[in-house]
């Protein structure tokens, strides 16, 4: 049995690759409070990174634990029904993420991945964001 009702499941599914997800908004709120300016969903970059700092050549990807297959995270537990379907689908997402990050780094971008579950500890996340954004930009 699927642990979610069909309605709930399709609601979750509708968020795949979604923009302006709750975790993303949470990260954006932190960045705003820290006084950082950023651009959103740059369509001219591989994978349309969620949050982009063009002058720093840095980008932040906010990943939902389930959809992006966060390793050893309880939020990424796969649905009990249609196991093979989900395994394939989620493996495809993970492969795509790796490809996108590789392409961005290849172009000289520095990438930080923030996982949904990391928003549970805002102090720690804030420190990570500051560290990432204040480090010297990569020499392309
Ligand atoms: Zn997680």
DSSP summary: helix tally:
4
Reading the helices and strands in chain order gives: HHEEEHEH
Number of DSSP strand runs: 4
Unreliable runs: none
Largest sheet: 4 strands, mixed
User: Can you give the helix content as a percent range?
Assistant: 40-55%
Strands of the largest sheet, in order across it? 1-2-3-4
Oligomer: single chain
**In percent, how much strand structure appears in the residues?**
5-15%
As a whole number of angstroms, the C-alpha radius of gyration is 16 Å
**Which structural class best describes the helix and strand composition?**
alpha+beta
**Envelope shape:** globular
Bound molecules: zinc ion
What does this structure look like?
The protein is α+β, with helices and mostly antiparallel strands. 41% of the residues lie in helices and 12% in strands. The protein contains four helices and four strands, in the order ααβββαβα. It has a four-stranded mixed β-sheet, sandwiched between helices. The longest helix has 24 residues. It is globular, with a radius of gyration of 16 Å. The chain binds zinc ion. Zinc ion (ZN) binds next to loops.
